[in-house]
Amino acid sequence: MAFRDQVAAMDAQLLDVLGDEALVDGRDLPVPGFFSAPWLQPKVGRINTGIREPVFAVRIVDAHLISDGQLITVQLMPEDGGGRYVIVKREPDGTGWVNLILREVR
After folding, report:
1. What are the tens digits of pLDDT across the range 43-81?
2. Exposed/middle/buried for 73, CB within 10 Å: 0-12, 13-18, 19+?
3. CB 66 within 8 A of CB 58
4. Distance CA 36, CA 57 (A)
5. Mean pLDDT, the chain, integer
6. Lowest CB count within 10 Å: 24, 69, 82, 84, which one?
7. 30 falls in which pLDDT band (50, 70, 90)?
8. How many CA atoms lie within 13 A of 91 on its CB side?
9. What is the pLDDT of residue 89?
10. Average pLDDT of the segment spanning 90-102
């Protein structure tokens, strides 16, 4: 088995066990990935702003039909960050994954 095939199988197993799912407008099936919403806490003068940057990381094979400006619904409980977001930017990380930078829709 080629290395690329082994990595793809490992990614699929990790997503099955640890992954999250999201619905992207225009797609019928959920997209597997990993959701995170780290607090950036940039300082403006002496004030912490409390800004967070939600990210949904997907495999590059799943990202090819996803574009900036699309709506995405992360299928988690609201207290875990679930809800509707707009995809602001796609950032490939060079490892076969694409980080979708999100902005919450209110």
Report:
1. 566 666 666 789 999 999 999 889 999 999 999 888 788
2. middle
3. yes
4. 8
5. 87
6. 69
7. very high
8. 11
9. 95
10. 93
Name the pTM for this structure: 0.83
Q: Is the CB of residue 56 less than 8 Å from the CB of residue 72?
A: yes
Residues 6+ apart with CB under 8 A from 64: none
Amino acid in position 92: P
Rounded Cα distance, 69 and 106, in Å: 15
Are the C-beta atoms of residues 62 and 24 closer than 8 Å to each other? no
Torsion of CA 57, 60, 64, 65, to 10 degrees: -40
CA dihedral 77, 11, 23, 20 (to 10 degrees): 0
DSSP 8-state assignment for residue 39? B
